[in-house]
Amino acid sequence: MLKMKIKLVDFETCTGCGVCVLVCPVNSIELVENNIGYKYPKINYDLCINCGKCLRICEEIKNNTTYESKEVFAAASKDQIILKNSSSGGIFSEMAKYILANGGYVFGASMDNNFFVRHIEINCLKDLPLLQGSKYVQSDSYIVFERIKILLLNNNLVLFSGTPCQISALISFLSDHYNNLYLVEIICHGVPNNKIFQDYIINYEKRQKCTVQNYKFRTKDRGWGIIGSVEYKKANHKQKRTVFSDEDSYYSAFLAGLIFRNSCYSCNFATKRRCSDITLGDFWGIQNEHRHELNVNSMNPFQGVSAVLINSNSGLELFENVKENINYFQSSFNKVARHNPQLYKPSERNSLRDTLLFNYQKFGYSSIENQFRKNFIKKLIILRVKNKIPRGIVFKIKKWFFFRFD
Ligand SMILES: Cc1cc2nc3c(=O)[nH]c(=O)nc-3n(C[C@H](O)[C@H](O)[C@H](O)COP(=O)(O)OP(=O)(O)OC[C@H]3O[C@@H](n4cnc5c(N)ncnc54)[C@H](O)[C@@H]3O)c2cc1C
Ligand code: SF4
Ligand code: SF4
Ligand code: SF4
Q1: For ligand 2, atom 4: residue with the closest CA
Q2: 328 CB contacts (<8 Å, ≥6 apart)?
Q3: Of 9, 279, 61, 292, which is closest to residue 166 (Cα–Cα)?
Q4: 215 CA distance to ligand 3 middle (Å)
Q5: Which protein residues are within 6 Å of ligand 1, measured from CB?
């Protein structure tokens, strides 16, 4: 008899969470990278027994947005080292510290020495730096789900942090509620993938004739903002350079929404209703929303401030336990959302996205780099035409730009 083939993947909405792989009773699903680097499930129909488990769990994952935030705070760690090494106010680290101090385990996204981003587990404070800071690359998170289940069943405290779709995937995978689990999500507007980022690094090394040794998407060397840093070795000398988001091809494409996964443009989790215990983000615009409170609470926006959305009772309990280590004051959902549209709508699909990624697939990362350079020069010329900057300065910038990129 002919078997009916189950159709699992909707390429527009699949987040690549990997839970279908984990629940398949006959191991007939694997996540496979497409030509652009995004991973999608692939079914081996010779093994599939048509049980439908994968379809059912995939539907369920879309519907875990159960909470409306109970309270919203602006907050920053009192620990200057934590604050410096975190992307915003270091609240993730304060919560991780609390879990670790109580013998628990913390899971989050980490970048390895080969610039590959994946979720890892830590259970001692010295490893916390491995998890700190935003990595603007999709992290493989389902690889730690089975380990989390075992830890929870053995009554260990666990904190899992990730994007909202990863949190929702874990909730569905676990299926039961655990009082010893804390879920912390980041506000998320979208993710590129490991392949594009690795190709960017290779392209960078080729252009600069160097070996990249360390890469950070967010540093506070020049204060809180969208600025990264790259450390590399060139002619046996170590060098460090600031990565300005509007002068870098990968960063610009990321911020312009040009290289996100398909599902990010129709994200189910870009809504007021949240699925985690706590949501963390950058409290952009805080100087406009809370100038007075910043002064009263000795919080310096130059060092970074987090927006903290408390969504559940577990979230409230975790926040209570870190209060003495942070400066904080009350805010509101609307004040945070005014500067973070991801809290009520998905990122818009940039009309150039598909062409850019088509060219990337065909010609490699240099096509993204070239497109970026063309636009950069165009922007400079427009500025010049509008007489915003003197000719001499334009010349200097161009010279510097070509020196860097040619
Ligand atoms: C892809 C991405 C998009 C983001 N978009 C926004 C946004 O639009 N608006 C906004 O306000 N904030 C956004 N953030 C979150 C913000 O940058 C901070 O991460 C957040 O405010 C927490 O900061 P922190 O100082 O408390 O801790 P940090 O130390 O900065 O955060 C560390 C935690 O973030 C998690 N994390 C880092 N990279 C990833 C990743 N690739 N996948 C899953 N989890 C990750 C880790 O699990 C890590 O443990 C984004 C972060 C990422 C990774
Ligand atoms: S369960 Fe996750 S990986 Fe599998 S099809 Fe659904 S969204 Fe994609
Ligand atoms: S229908 Fe069942 S056996 Fe087939 S791929 Fe899905 S989970 Fe696996
Ligand atoms: S934008 Fe939505 S779908 Fe994309 S990574 Fe973030 S939470 Fe997941």
Answers
A1: 20
A2: 73, 74, 75, 76, 297, 308
A3: 61
A4: 39
A5: 86-93, 108-109, 117, 131-137, 139, 161-163, 186-189, 191, 280-282, 306, 340, 342
- Distance from C-alpha of 93 to C-alpha of 84, rounded to nearest angstrom: 11
Q: What is the pTM of this model?
A: 0.94
Identify how many contiguous H helices and E strands the chain contains and give both numbers: 15, 15
Phi, psi of 206 (to 5 degrees): -65, -45
**Greatest C-alpha distance within the chain:** 77
Two tokens, residue 340: 């973070």
Would you give the distance in Å from CA 248 to the centre of its chain? 18
Instruction: Please name the residue that has the structure tokens 């949240």.
Output: 274
DSSP 288: H
What are the average pLDDT values for consecutive 10-residue runs of the chain, which has 406 residues? 76 96 98 97 96 96 92 97 97 98 98 97 98 98 98 98 98 97 98 98 96 97 95 95 93 96 97 97 96 91 96 98 97 97 95 96 96 78 63 60 45
pLDDT computed for residue 6 by the predictor: 83
Question: How far is it, in rounded angstroms, from Cα 222 to Cα 224?
Answer: 7
Cα–Cα distance for residue pair 392/206, rounded to 1 Å: 30
Roughly how many angstroms between the first and final C-alpha of the chain, as a whole number?
62
Question: Helix, strand, or coil here: 269?
Answer: coil
Annotated domain spans of the chain:
19-61, 67-191+260-343, 194-258+364-405
Top CATH class, 19-61: alpha beta
- Determine the atom of ligand 2 nearest the C-alpha atom of 263: 7
